[in-house]
């Protein structure tokens, strides 16, 4: 027996997210393309054609609309728009503008992310985010995106998961080839300062394009849970990896919450999940309630007046019934946060498509399966289920 409730308000963003490099294919001028083809990087497999969404974006949008989704978060690719420093491709800007117009024509509200992990090779060669003039170069790129976002785009994300950018920079400086068994490497402080400055410059640039655009950025929330006696250790561990980036969003129009699992912290630091814990294809602990904890912690840090949007949440699994179960638990947590007074404006699943997960196609997060040979798209039962909720806004709940 089930009950239904309608906790999601009118205008609530109900959609799915993607990232350009992970779905477009042949992003040949990006730093990741070069990394994928460098044996020293030990990447399991390159992205190559990815999902060929550069050419098939209309089909992807048609599917999302047909499933019932009202919002689509996608990113534009800096390496395509500015393949050479100071040279901007009008054809690529027009391509992404067509995507915005295509979404609007279908009744699909576009959320545009301006940076989702990849940078042009020339930017990396300069030294990346910590190079002299990097902030100004990013702001100039944002200004050049004006034709894409100036008309009809309500939400713009400047930088996706800046805390992970700083973490990866810290790992690279330390010579680490992988992450520890639990928790994250120490973020690079210089990169932290740089991406925060770049974000603030980008917010200013977006508001100069159109002050009506709602602009923010998204944080990778690890849901650090303190074991008894480890509260201070947890706070000290979390601050440079998460809270400093949440705090940097003060003055923005919204902040994106992205969460998948949890990390327990003991007196000595992060503790791996138990051996018998259910794990996803990314080897993360199966923990649907994570997004609720992430929303509440973000609100605690930045204050109750900041609108929150779940800009990524999902599970890598080959068992679609577990995907439905995960989303059920996650949405119950989101609904509970709303009922408790948090200003949650939307929920966008990760990911619309089974895509390139930064080194491998094996972790399947997608609501829609993609055949890697024919590129045929096949919506999964979870897509029909989650999209259907977008039509009704009625969340099934087990009777208690």
TrEMBL record:
The keyword NADP does not apply. SUPFAM superfamilies: (Trans)glycosidases. InterPro entries: GH, Glyco_hydro_1. Pfam families: Glyco_hydro_1. GO terms for cellular component: cytosol. Keywords: Glycosidase, Hydrolase. Coiled coil: none annotated. One of its GO terms (biological process) is carbohydrate catabolic process. GO terms for molecular function: beta-glucosidase activity. Belongs to the glycosyl hydrolase 1 family. This is Beta-glucosidase. It comes from Streptomyces spiralis.
């Amino acid at each position: 027996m089930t009950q239904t409730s309608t906790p999601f308000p009118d205008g609530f963003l109900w959609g799915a997210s993607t990232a350009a490099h992970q779905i477009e294919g042949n992003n040949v001028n990006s730093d990741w393309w070069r990394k994928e083809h460098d044996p020293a990087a030990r990447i399991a497999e390159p992205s190559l054609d990815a999902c060929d969404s550069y050419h098939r974006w209309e089909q992807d949008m048609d599917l999302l609309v047909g499933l019932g989704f009202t919002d689509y978060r996608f990113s534009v690719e800096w390496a395509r728009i500015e393949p050479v420093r100071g040279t901007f491709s009008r054809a690529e800007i027009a391509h992404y503008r067509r995507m915005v117009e295509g979404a609007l024509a279908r009744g699909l509200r576009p959320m545009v992310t301006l940076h989702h992990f990849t940078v042009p090779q020339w930017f990396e060669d300069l030294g990346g985010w910590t190079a002299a003039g990097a902030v100004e170069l990013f702001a100039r790129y944002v200004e050049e995106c004006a034709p894409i976002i100036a008309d009809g785009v309500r939400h713009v994300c400047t930088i996706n998961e800046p805390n992970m950018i700083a973490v990866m920079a810290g790992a690279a400086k330390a010579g680490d080839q992988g992450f520890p068994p639990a928790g994250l490497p120490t973020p690079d402080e210089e990169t932290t300062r740089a991406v925060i400055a770049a974000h603030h410059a980008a917010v200013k640039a977006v508001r100069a394009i159109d002050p009506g655009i709602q602009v923010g950025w998204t944080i990778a929330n690890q849901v650090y849970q303190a074991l008894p006696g480890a509260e201070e250790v947890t706070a000290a561990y979390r601050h440079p990896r998460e809270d400093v980036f949440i705090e940097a969003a003060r003055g923005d129009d919204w902040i994106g919450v992205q969460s998948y699992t949890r990390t327990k912290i003991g007196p000595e630091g992060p503790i791996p999940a138990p051996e018998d814990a259910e794990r996803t294809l990314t080897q993360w602990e199966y923990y649907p309630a994570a997004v609720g904890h992430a929303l509440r912690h973000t609100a605690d840090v930045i204050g109750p007046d900041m609108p929150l949007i779940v800009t990524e949440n999902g599970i890598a699994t080959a068992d679609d019934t577990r995907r439905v179960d995960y989303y059920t638990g996650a949405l119950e947590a989101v609904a509970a946060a709303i009922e408790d007074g948090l200003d949650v404006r939307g929920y966008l699943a990760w990911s619309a498509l089974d895509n390139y997960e930064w080194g491998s196609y094996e972790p399947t997060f997608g609501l829609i399966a993609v055949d890697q040979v024919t590129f045929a798209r096949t919506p999964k039962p979870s897509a029909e289920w989650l999209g259907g909720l977008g039509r009704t806004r009625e969340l099934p709940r087990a009777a208690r």
